[in-house]
Amino acid sequence: MGSQVANIDFPIRVSDSRQLNPPAENLHLYWRSQEEEGYLERYWPNEHDHDAWIDSIRAILVRQFPDFADAEIQYFAKGTFNRLYSLTHPSWKKAYIFRVSIPVEPFFKTESEIATMEYVRRHTTMPIPRVIAFSSSDNNELGYEWILMDMMPGEPLRKLWDGMPDAARVKVFAELAAHTKQLVALRFSKFGSLYFADVADRVLPRQISPMNKPSNGTHALSNGTDVIDKDIGPGGRFVLGRIVAQDFFFDKRVYYPGSRGPFDTTRELVDMRMELLGKRIRNLSPVEGDAWYCENDRELERNKDRVYELFDQLKALVPRLVPHDNGPEDVGILWHDDLSEHNLLLDPVTFKLTAVVDWECVGIIPAYETQDARPAWLSDRDWRPTPLVQLARGIPPNHDFIAADKLRRVGEMGPARREYHRIVGPVYDATSPETQQRAKNKQGIAKQLEIATFQHRPWWTADWLADNNFNGDKTVHAFDTNNVDMGGVTMNGVDMNGVDMNGVA
């Protein structure tokens, strides 16, 4: 490839950033009821003609980069939000990826992802793709937003893990820890997402201007610490703006009014998450065939009296567990919460870390929510209790499997976990018992507000409330689900007495 692309040091936006369009009314076409668990998932509404798409991709690229006229363009892969195409040529020294995204959070998701990647590239040594050009508008031949970036070498960790020696497993997470330590050392004064400064008027509240920030970029938090927002403020290339996160745009949430930040305090962030959850569980689509229908909504509707009662109990806890003032545990950290087996690429021979990919929805969150900056692959976060829809189908709870698999992973992941945390160190000062208790309380609330918790597993929130005596007693009230006794001793013949679901994550 000629110097046209090789010498580009800052992403080129080829779309008009001034055009402001509200989310389209047809966004429901990109969500459907997930067959296995019955909740809404993102999907491409139809199969596309790859040959036609390749012609459109070539037409888009050659307007900016004529060298791509002779590129070999092939379908490469499909992700949750994206379709990827590879661009190669025998005379090029490197290959490229062209990624097309469905519109779940139009404009903001693409803009934030590109700015975040560039920010990380400039402030850490973490190996991430270089973005060459992008469009945060669907006003093009494809009708979708897109990104052109370097193709990174390596294979996903998931393909290599089983064949890796224990020493190699520890070594790769020690390597990741060195990069992560740089990432979490960056400190921010608000919670939200990063954007390039030239779109500040679209991503900041109208009453806030980048010029209102202190000129030295230093902000004193209520806990007495100073936070440096590097490259943010007057003259900086970035702004800290509205948050792009699934609990703010997942399914119908993208339409709901309310603040998207940036948020000054954890309490503001939690209150808004709670408000959006409340709107969502009262805006159900339980009728099959309707837009946004999913089985989960049908079961929430069937049990809505108990669901609303639980939500009110959860909401009433916030003033008790989340103070208005930030503490040490609330320092803002830029955190990639999906450092998983899919997004960590390794050299298949040396097992050296070659890339960290998928920076969608990466934002600045309170430090306690990072769970000590633990990567997803080293955690147990993906193991969750059986969702409400499966219980209604008569499927027994999976707590025995989760408990057994957690024990297995302790042995498998233990050495890598210990080395990772030794290198990263604490992400905030948790020496005070009061700080530890506040962090535990806030982590509990945060877990309930995740999409995959209350909205899909409200009975798990009932257990959490009871186990922590937050509802004044230890009684878990019944859900009226088919063949499932949620409040008694048995569930489809499975003894539920003494089962502690609070510890299952």
UniProtKB/TrEMBL annotation:
It holds the Pfam family APH. This is Phosphotransferase enzyme family-domain-containing protein. InterPro entries: AGP_Transferase, Aminoglycoside_PTrfase, Kinase-like_dom_sf. Residues 73-368 form the Aminoglycoside phosphotransferase domain. Coiled coil: none annotated. It comes from the Eukaryota.
